[in-house]
Write a structure and sequence with these properties.
The protein has 226 residues and is an alpha+beta fold. It contains nine helices and five strands. It has two domains: 91 residues; 118 residues, 3-Layer(aba) Sandwich (Cytidine Deaminase, domain 2), CATH 3.40.140.10.
Length: 226
C-alpha cells in the first residue's frame, strides 16, 4: 500500500467515525484535520492540523483565526482556509435560522447560544441588533457596527433606520467584550440610553441589551438599566 492509499484510508476512517457517532471521541486536531481535508481532499493534513492547534492553542482559536494567520502555517492555503471558515459560517447560519419567528423570551437560551458562538472569540467589539415583531418573534439578527462601543462608532439614526426597514416593533441589542469583563462601561450605558431614546421616538421598544464576554452574559434588563 502506497502513501496516498494510506492517507485516503485514514481520512475515510475519520469520515466514517464522524458519520457513526458525530464528534464524540474526536480529538481537536482530528476535527481540524477533517475540515482541512475539505480543501485538499487528497493531502495528509494530520501534521498541519496538529501545528495549527499548537500555534493557536484551541479548536475555537483555530476556527476564529484570520486567514492570513492560518496561511502562515506550512500546508494551509486558500482552499484549507475555506474548509475551516465554511464550518463556522454554516454553524452561525444554522443557529440564527433556528430562532427566526420564535418568541424571544422563550427562545432566549438559543439566542444566547447564537450570540456566544458568533461573538465570544472576536478580537474587536461587534454590535448586533435583534429585530422583533409585535408578538416578540425574532425577525432577524444583524451585525451593524464593529469597533469600540462609543457614540462615534454606533449611530442611533442607522439603528432606527434598520429597525424601520425590517418592520420591527421592538429591538434587543448585543455586543461582546473581548477584554473578558462582562460589566458595562460608561460608554455602553451612555449609548444604550441614546439608542433607547431614538427608538422610542418612532414607537419602537428596547427590550434588552446583552453583553457577551466568553461564557458570561450581562443583561441590562436584569440589572434595571433598560
Amino acid at each position: 500500500m502506497n502513501t496516498q492509499q494510506k492517507n485516503e484510508g485514514h481520512r475515510q476512517r475519520l469520515r466514517e467515525k464522524f458519520l457513526k457517532s458525530g464528534l464524540d471521541g474526536f480529538h481537536d486536531y482530528e476535527i481540524i484535520e477533517l475540515l482541512l481535508t475539505l480543501g485538499t481532499p487528497r493531502k495528509d493534513c494530520k501534521a498541519t492540523a496538529r501545528e495549527a492547534l499548537k500555534k493557536f492553542g484551541s479548536l475555537k482559536a483555530v476556527l476564529e483565526a484570520e486567514p492570513a494567520e492560518l496561511k502562515s502555517i506550512n500546508g494551509i492555503g486558500d482552499n484549507n482556509v475555506f474548509g475551516l471558515k465554511i464550518s463556522q459560517a454554516v454553524a452561525r447560519r444554522y443557529l440564527s435560522d433556528k430562532v427566526l419567528l420564535k418568541d424571544f423570551i422563550r427562545s432566549s437560551e438559543e439566542v444566547i447560544q447564537y450570540l456566544q458562538h458568533n461573538l465570544r472569540d472576536r478580537n474587536r467589539e461587534v454590535f448586533v441588533v435583534i429585530y422583533l415583531n409585535g408578538r416578540n418573534q425574532i425577525l432577524k439578527m444583524e451585525e451593524l457596527f464593529e469597533g469600540s462601543l462609543t457614540t462615534s462608532a454606533v449611530y442611533p439614526r442607522e439603528v432606527v433606520k434598520s429597525a424601520l426597514d425590517n418592520d420591527a416593533a421592538a429591538l434587543v441589542f448585543a455586543h461582546n467584550h473581548p477584554s473578558g469583563n462582562p460589566n458595562p462601561s460608561e460608554d455602553d450605558i451612555s449609548i444604550t440610553k441614546k439608542l433607547k431614546a431614538a427608538a422610542l421616538s418612532v414607537d419602537i421598544s428596547i427590550h434588552d441589551h446583552l453583553i457577551i464576554s466568553g461564557n458570561e452574559v450581562y443583561s441590562f434588563a436584569d440589572h434595571g438599566l433598560i
